[in-house]
Design brief:
The complex is a heterodimer of chains A (1004) and B (142). Chain A is an alpha+beta fold and 1004 residues long. Helix content of chain A is 43%, strand content 24%. The chains are: A alpha+beta (1004), B mainly beta (142).
Chain lengths: 1004, 142
């Protein structure tokens, strides 16, 4: 019977939530063992399970929950203290209970005897440890002491307490079929309505006639229970909707014998009620406690449920219908459009329908949102068990449990998050001793944090453990041949960390049963990416590791591009879309070229493989002879000759899909692929478009497979590096600070040489002799006026405010006094070296139609302060030595040449690596200074060639660059450079040259 | 004991299906073909927000398809509301609902072989013609 199934399902749902509450409660007991409210909550949860399970005749569940209830009852009445072992036992039995509830049909077969034995021992005041040993023996006892339901001391105490508060004791018999089944009242509802008027003390179901779970409401079986309530007997039938004759009022002073007979088959403990009433007399609860008790009772009873359980399928149905409604609205609006004017009053109605429909859809989407607590809540338990198993002390902090995500995402998050948390506990957090040695608290912390950021939900898994050992990861990756040595040498630490996501990678040195089974992070990443999310790692040695998951709010709706091919529309998720390239016929710079039969497109220096969607899907073009040409010509016909290529990127794999037309982007509702289409690898789902037609959602991964695209990882990485280098070389521009001195000339200085610009007032300048000084950071700083040293115009303007440029990368700073800062610009300079020549000026350039003089601060300072800045110190250095400078940027060519010539070197210039090699062949070179990024042949390649050539290998080589980054530096040094320096830092450059020459001399 | 059967015409033959398995009959449907799918799948269509996979029953049962007649009528089978695998199949035109007496039907004769034999659960001897009762569970199991 469907109805019964529903009732049972309701019971299962309800009971599972109770079991979960018990678990969370138990875990909290560890922290606050004496919180009465907590114990009360657990007690009530177990009690409810027991009560409702009774309706279905689920004896084992009743037995176990009853035993647990007794323990909690004792704890609640402060007759027993909860110990660590007891918590463990209760957790274990709670798990068992959960298992039985989840597989409710087979719950009767579950073996719960060991729990019952242990509990009965605990009740007798023995420790769990003891009971462990005695299990065998006690089983026998158990069999005699038929346990199913018994009125315990706890129950009796409850009865008496309630009676004191004016409750009356009733025995109620419910005929499950007649009273509930026929009226379609679910047992859960009934239980709730009973609990709302009183307390069920004890219940018993005559289950002898039940053969199957489904029968329970069909066969007329009796469900008896003892109830205490304040209601008069006459009111009960109405309240409970059961016939009056089923209710029997009991006298609380009934003799024990009668009392035990109340619930026929129930075994009543020998102690009986009389003894109990004495107990009550002894333990007269104080008035205050009573009052508190009753007020608590009251508040329990008036709790109004503000949530109701709705089956997910119903929500999904609603979601479907809502989107249909949107469709219907669209159609309606389209049809009515013509008649809007002619039907008076329809305009506001249409608008109203329009708004309501949209809102309806949004609200229904929201119903699928669930708090992330649903996933987070299982982690306290996991951490608790892990820390025990691993011998570590770990504290778990949960933040942002209230953040909501789509149900489907919440469900899919469990496994990846568990893996990450286990990972943190196992590999991240160190053992307490190690932690202590490295000066950290013994207790390690794992933080699970969820928060909103930019339309996404981020979940961080943070540990304060040892961090990831990057060298170890690299070593491992090499061992497992996941990367080549060359690739590895090019990797930054951040990139190396990403290696753990490669399939087949596992760093655990020994395989533990906690984590490290070899299938690890790659599965986590795949799962997260399936949800449309991404995962990032941040790690710092000794400080800990953070895994950050970025997840979309909902799964069901994704932005996608609607494309057309062969007259059919398809949806392409935008996550993978990089860009769209339009190719016009006859455009010679952008065209599809052929390698044998394969089409490729030159895209920013790389060859992009192109596949035609029509080929992949087997859609027939108009010309049957060659499908490729047909598709090509078809696309020509349908789109006036323009070929549209969608550039997709999955991981490092990039390819283009040619389509006939692009209809724009749309937020689509993803529906699962019917199982009949599972063989079609090109689709990941179905959607219904705005016009009511279905469209397939394309799966780029599947297209790669289907189109037989074989990407070689290695080559691709190199290509990507090239691309990165290319885009970085574009960045090799000068940042110029433009300023004016007293004259009309505009000066420029490279920003990388400027530490800061200070505003000063004219009266801050103090004259000492011929020199001017200001106070700067507690010191005196000499300031110079460029116009005093460089042949430019100068007017003595009496300005109140002046500016001082504080340079960096100089040994003895001098401030440059200027009158006005014009601007800072980023530009590639076309340097004019000839027209304006002077010491202190590198050259001139035109910016915004004005001549800008570029200041050489080293020369300027030399003019101003010959004592400190004469290049005498280096002069000896360069004598009779020839330096080859490979540099493509004119500005830097000039600067470097200038520095070196001042130091007495003979300087040879080369525009790129190839020219440099030529020079090396033709001339005797003592030292090479090379830029990294150059056209034709870059610095890395140059130095490799030098090192490979026996005649040249001994020449010291110094890389100079305008970029300073550890990655570049490492790459440079790995390639064979002796040093790696910043271009404009003259002093360092000369120092380094000196050292390089020194080393070389020593080597010889 | 009699049962009700919905009859329909396909490629000139008269077929029947147990009416309790049928959800509805749709006319003038617009469906989207799915490139790269099995040829027996005609396409997908949107039935009030549910995606229904439409089968080409004639192809499934190895009938020569008369491609000139465009089929626009389909029978949708009952399925749980949120099953993504809703099934429908195209027919030429629907017939009547007929009561079938149990003793008027028999299993397919020995010479009805191969696929037809598997998909047809019984043959009903109507007064004027033979009615082939199809077994959707067998037909659409894959």
């Amino acid at each position: 019977m469907l109805q019964n199934e529903e009732f049972i399902q309701e019971f299962v749902d309800e009971a599972i939530s109770h079991v979960t509450n018990v678990e969370t409660g138990l875990l909290k007991i560890d922290e606050a063992p004496l919180d009465p409210e907590l114990i009360n909550n657990i007690f009530r949860a177990v009690h409810s399970i027991k009560g409702t399970a009774g309706f279905f005749g689920l004896k084992k569940i009743v037995e176990l929950s009853h035993a647990m209830e007794n323990i909690f009852g004792e704890i609640r009445n402060k007759k027993m203290n909860i110990t660590q072992e007891m918590t463990d036992l209760l957790l274990a039995s709670n798990d068992c209970l959960k298992g039985m509830i989840e597989d409710v049909a087979n719950s009767e077969e579950a073996d719960i005897s060991s729990f019952l034995t242990k509990f009965s021992f605990i009740l007798k005041g023995e420790t769990v440890a003891k009971t462990e040993n005695d299990t065998e023996q006690s089983l026998a006892i158990l069999n005699n002491e038929a346990l199913p339901v018994s009125i315990t001391d706890t129950d009796k105490l409850l009865i008496h307490n309630n009676v004191k508060h004016g409750h009356k004791l009733y025995k109620v018999r419910v005929r499950l079929n007649e009273d509930l089944g026929l009226k379609s009242i679910s047992p859960i509802q009934f239980f709730k309505s009973v609990e709302s008027i009183g307390n069920i003390i004890e219940s018993y179901t005559d289950t002898s006639s039940i053969n199957q779970l489904e029968d329970c409401l069909n066969v007329d079986i009796n469900f008896d229970f003892l109830l205490t309530t304040v209601l008069e007997k006459s009111l009960l039938p109405a309240a409970l909707e059961i016939p009056e004759e089923s209710i029997q009022e009991l006298d609380i002073n009934t003799r024990p014998a009668d009392f035990s007979g109340l619930l026929k088959e129930c075994t009543v403990e020998k102690s009986g009620i009389k003894e109990n009433s004495e107990t009550v007399h002894e333990e007269q609860p104080s008035h205050d406690e009573q009052a508190k008790d009753s007020s608590q009772k009251k508040s329990q009873n008036v709790v109004v449920e503000d949530t109701i359980r709705v089956h997910v399928s119903l929500l999904n149905n609603l979601l479907n219908l809502a989107s249909e409604m949107v469709l219907g609205r669209n159609q309606l609006l389209r049809v009515v459009e013509k008649h809007r004017k002619s039907i008076p009053g329809i305009e506001p109605i249409l608008q109203n329908i329009d708004h309501i429909t949209t809102e309806l859809q949004e609200k229904i989407m929201q119903t699928r949102m669930q708090p992330i607590a649903n996933v987070f809540n299982k982690f306290p338990r996991i951490i608790r068990e892990l820390s025990k198993k691993l011998g570590k002390e770990i504290e778990l902090q949960l933040e942002g449990s209230e953040v909501e995500l789509d149900k489907s995402i919440i469900e899919a998050l469990g496994d990846p998050l568990t893996h990450l948390v286990r990972n943190s506990a196992d590999h991240g957090i160190e053992t307490p001793d190690i932690r202590e040695k490295s000066g950290k608290p013994r207790v390690g912390t794992v933080i699970l944090k969820a928060y909103h950021e930019g339309g996404y939900v981020n979940i961080d898994v943070i540990d304060d453990g040892s961090g990831m050992n990057i060298e170890k990861i690299k070593k491992k990756a090499l061992e497992k041949e996941l990367v080549s040595k060359a690739e590895l040498s090019m990797m930054s630490d951040q990139e190396a960390v990403q290696l753990v996501f490669k399939p087949g990678f596992s760093t655990a040195e020994k395989v533990t049963d906690v984590s490290g089974r070899g299938v690890g992070m790659d599965v986590v990443r795949t799962n997260i990416e399936k949800l449309g999310g991404t995962i990032e790692i941040f790690t710092s040695a000794g400080q800990g590791t953070t895994f950050r998951l970025l997840l979309p709010l909902t799964l069901a709706i994704i932005p996608s591009l609607i494309v057309e091919v062969g007259g059919q529309r398809f949806a392409l998720p935008q996550v993978n879309l990089q860009e769209i390239v339009r190719i016009k016929p006859g455009d010679t710079t952008r065209k599809i070229e052929f390698i044998h039969n394969s089409e490729v497109l030159r895209l920013r220096g790389r060859l992009l493989p192109i596949v035609h969607l029509s080929d992949v899907l087997g859609l027939q073009g108009t010309c049957p002879t060659s499908p490729r040409e047909a598709a090509y010509s078809a696309s020509h016909e349908s789109t006036s000759g323009i070929t549209r290529i969608l550039v997709l990127k999955i991981g490092s794999r990039q390819f283009g899909i040619a389509v006939d037309a692009i209809h724009g982007s749309e937020e689509i509702l993803v529906k699962p692929l019917p199982k009949f289409l599972k063989d079609c690898k090109c689709y990941s789902g179905v959607t219904i478009m705005g016009d009511g037609k279905t469209a397939m959602i394309l799966d780029p991964e599947g297209i790669i497979v289907k189109a037989n695209l074989r990407f070689s990882e290695g080559r691709d990485d190199v290509a990507e590096k090239e691309l990165a280098a290319e885009s970085e070389s574009i960045k090799e521009q000068q940042n110029l600070l433009l300023f004016k001195c007293s004259g009309p000339e505009t000066f420029g200085i490279d920003l990388s040489l400027v530490s800061r610009v200070e505003e000063i007032t004219a009266d801050e300048i103090e004259k000492i002799g011929q020199k001017e000084f200001i106070k700067f950071r507690g010191n005196s700083l000499r300031v110079i006026r460029p116009e005093d040293f460089i042949p430019v115009n100068s007017h003595r303007n009496e300005r109140k405010y002046l500016y001082v440029i504080i340079p960096k990368l100089v040994k003895h700073p001098l401030g440059i006094l200027i009158e006005k800062v014009n601007d800072t610009v980023q530009t590639s300079i076309k340097l004019n070296l000839e027209d304006i020549k002077s010491k202190g000026i590198i050259g001139s350039t035109i910016l915004n139609d004005r001549i800008v003089l570029l200041v050489n601060i080293y020369e300027l300072f030399e003019l101003a302060d010959p004592e400190h800045y004469s290049s005498v110190s280096h002069k000896a250095l360069g004598e009779k030595l020839t330096v080859l400078v490979a540099e493509d940027t004119p500005f830097f060519q000039k600067m470097e040449k200038n520095y070196l010539e001042q130091a007495g070197f003979k300087v040879l210039m080369a525009q790129n690596g190839k020219e440099a090699l030529q020079h090396l062949q033709d001339n005797e070179i003592d030292l090479v200074v090379s830029d990294i990024h150059m056209p034709v042949m870059d610095g890395l390649e140059l130095v490799k060639r030098i090192r490979e050539d026996k005649r040249l290998a001994h020449i010291p080589a110094i890389a100079v660059t305008s970029m300073t980054g550890d990655l570049q530096k490492k790459a440079g040094l790995d390639a064979g450079f002796d040093f790696y320096e910043f271009k404009l830092d003259r002093e360092r450059l000369l120092d380094v040259i000196e050292r390089a020459l020194q080393l070389r001399r020593e080597a010889i | 004991m009699s049962e009700k059967v919905l009859t329909f015409y396909l490629q000139g033959g008269l077929f029947g299906i147990d009416i309790t398995l049928v959800k509805e009959i749709n006319r003038n449907i617009e469906f989207t073909p799915v490139p790269d799918a099995s040829p027996s799948i005609a396409g997908l269509f949107n039935m009030r927000g549910q995606v229904v996979t439409l089968f080409n029953l004639a192809k499934l049962m190895n009938y020569e398809e008369n491609s000139e007649v465009k089929k626009l009528v389909c029978i949708i089978l009952k399925a749980p509301p949120n099953d993504p695998n809703q099934i429908g199949f195209l027919i030429d035109r629907p017939g009547d609902v007929v009561d079938i007496e149990k003793d008027s039907s028999e299993i397919p004769p020995a010479n009805v072989g191969n696929i037809d034999g598997e998909y047809i659960s019984s043959i009903v001897k109507l007064e004027s013609e033979l009615l082939m009762i199809i077994d959707p569970n067998k037909i659409f199991q894959n």
